[in-house]
Design a protein that fits this description.
Length: about 600
């Protein structure tokens, strides 16, 4: 009898042990994802130059910031996102989250002064609050694989003028300088060697607290793992791959880490640098390569070793009962709500950042390799993409928005079990000190007025109520100053931009049941008279960038009006208006992107947002 009882106790213990191997991370492990922080350390001091920046006329504090004009022509904010990043970290602390992932573009452009500044912030939060940070590279962190001289001509200088800051005197036009240029090595672009060394404590190298760590080049197995062996194999010079059609080798900073028992974080370095046709003959010339902003389309060509490694990792994760969460800088799935074909037809393949859209092959390959959940960045958008392959494998690609653009937010992944995940998007609307730099911009605006600049920005942005409002203004000015002139075909833009909503509604002369449609939607023609074509274009960009997060901003009544206009334009004889209606409609009806649940067992995504 005693033996029988012992036998069942033993069986029970084995079962509990197996369950622990899979789920000992606890029922509700939370991981925060902050993509595209683009941190510029606006209060940093250069190591080799006494220049301190300029003095805030309101506070007397010195800062080194970019002009508002530069910000409003860029897809990212350069200055205020510094405060938004700190606000996000403080919010993460309040929520008790201990694992934080940064999927690339953590720096402005990989400049020493900014990478050092970020490292100091992460070190501080690690020591004080026990947070573990896991980082991967983006195209703005390692602009080229090797360090190179760089210049920024659009810092804000004395009296509101532009200030050139450069790492060399030989890479800018001195005749266009309003102020004496500042020369410092701290503004150059670091390469892999320098950037990865500075950020070494944030996943790129093994730590004693990790339960497991490997790279695509590791020779040991999970059962053989020990920290000393991992450390021996971790130097960057041991983590290189041969560049196709050359005799060159480049570093690959990918890694796999088990920070919490049962959870594997797969950091994919998807920076793929395409070599030039003619090479310098040197082994470390940054000018031999193009930038890496294309992403996974070039990974399949130039870094095929990553796909083989991913297959191995995914198979091992499944065999060992590990929950595998992949992250990288670039999206693995089309991110335009499946409207990319129509966008190409209307705007052209080289517009709307369409060159960054991953081919369908990317999603198919990585889904069949075993990736089910992937967090990406790069596009500064809040979107979710889902793809299922012919083999029945499903990939959920979660695009994490940027804190440096509309809508400023980060993501929280809650792991309820091996098959049930929850994703929540946290908007950084209220940010401490978000407007503390506005006195600088007052000086810049006065200078632009004085010189009668023909591209002056709208000063109303300085009346922003909070950080979210500031990013809304940023997007609106970006649309006006850059997207409309650069992306929209001139004739098509003329045909809609200044028309009233009512004009757009009645543009289709073939409509015979419009009054019936209006009645069914409890709308009148006069409801469409309060806005125009520019408002529709702006709201398109809001939906394109923020997904579901833009819905409360636009309002359900306006969205109902847009839906009806799309329905009417779709019947038009004008093929461009038909395309516009299809693009807008798809952009309004993407996958859940705010708060949702992923069921990996049944390959389902369910919206948890309150409607």
């Amino acid at each position: 009898m005693a033996f029988k009882n012992f036998f069942w106790v033993l069986i029970f213990a084995v079962l509990i042990s197996c369950k622990t191997e899979q789920h000992s991370h606890g029922q509700k492990t939370k991981i925060a994802f902050i993509a595209d922080a683009h941190l510029q350390d606006i209060f940093a001091k250069f190591e080799d130059n006494d220049y301190q920046g300029i003095q805030n006329p309101a506070t007397g504090e010195y800062a080194n910031i970019r002009t508002m004009n530069a910000q409003l022509h860029s897809t990212r904010i350069f200055n205020e996102n510094y405060f938004a990043f700190l606000e996000a970290l403080n919010d993460i602390i309040k929520r008790g989250i201990k694992q934080v992932v940064l999927p690339g573009d953590f720096s402005d452009d990989g400049q020493p002064v900014h990478v050092r500044g970020l490292r100091k912030i992460l070190d501080q939060y690690s020591r004080k609050y026990g947070i573990s940070f896991y980082v991967t590279t983006g195209n703005h962190d390692v602009v080229r694989p090797f360090a190179q001289d760089a210049v920024k001509t659009d810092f804000l200088g004395k009296d509101g003028k532009e200030q050139i800051i450069s790492s060399s005197e030989n890479i800018f036009n001195k005749s266009k300088s309003e102020l004496v240029p500042i020369i410092t090595a701290d503004i150059k672009n670091w390469g892999y060697k320098e950037t990865i060394h500075e950020m070494r404590d944030f996943g790129f190298f093994p730590k004693k607290t990790d339960l497991y760590w490997e790279t695509p080049f590791s020779k040991y197995t999970y059962s053989q793992y020990n920290f000393e062996e991992a450390e021996k194999e971790s130097p960057l010079e041991k983590r290189t791959y041969a560049v196709k059609n050359t005799n060159l080798f480049l570093p690959d900073a990918s890694y796999l880490v088990e920070p919490v028992k049962g959870i594997w974080l797969l950091a994919i370095d998807a920076n793929a640098y395409v070599p030039n046709e003619k090479l310098s003959g040197k082994t470390d010339d940054p000018h031999d390569f193009s930038g890496a902003n294309t992403g996974y389309n070039n990974v399949l060509i130039y870094k095929s070793h990553l796909l083989n490694w991913v297959k191995k990792v995914a198979a091992e994760a499944k065999a060992k009962g590990k929950i595998l969460i992949a992250f990288s800088h670039y999206p693995m799935v089309e991110f335009n709500d499946n409207a990319s074909p129509e966008l190409k037809q209307l705007f052209g393949a080289d517009k709307m950042q369409l060159q960054r859209v991953p081919d369908e092959e990317v999603a198919q390959q990585f889904a069949d390799a075993g990736i089910q959940v992937h967090f990406g960045g790069h596009m500064h958008i809040n979107k979710t993409g889902v793809r299922t392959t012919e083999k029945g494998n499903t990939l959920f690609n979660i695009q994490t928005p940027s804190l440096a653009a509309y809508m400023p937010a980060y993501k929280i992944l809650t792991i309820h079990s091996g098959s049930e995940l929850e994703v929540e998007t946290i908007v950084m609307g209220k940010v401490n000190k978000y407007n503390s730099l506005f006195p600088f911009y007052e000086e810049e605006y006065a200078h632009l007025k004085e010189i009668k600049s023909n591209a002056i920005w709208d000063k109303e942005i300085l009346k922003a109520n909070d950080y979210k409002d500031f990013t809304t203004w940023h997007l609106k000015e970006l649309v006006r100053l850059r997207f409309l002139p650069e992306d929209f075909p001139v004739e098509f833009l003329k045909s809609i931009v200044n028309l009233s909503g009512r004009d757009l509604l009645e543009k289709n002369k073939n409509s015979f049941d419009l009054d019936k449609e209006l009645k069914e939607n409890v709308l009148t023609r006069s409801d469409f008279e309060s806005w125009n074509g520019f408002d529709m274009i702006f709201d398109f960009y809001r939906l394109k960038n923020a997904g579901e997060l833009a819905v409360p901003e636009i309002g359900t009544k306006r969205l109902k009006q847009y839906e009806l206009i799309c329905k009417e334009l779709k019947k038009s004889d004008n093929p461009k208006l038909v395309l516009w209606s299809e693009i807008f409609y798809k952009t309004m009806n993407g996958e859940p992107s705010n708060h949702f649940k992923i069921d990996l067992k049944n390959n389902r995504i369910d919206n948890l947002s309150v409607k």
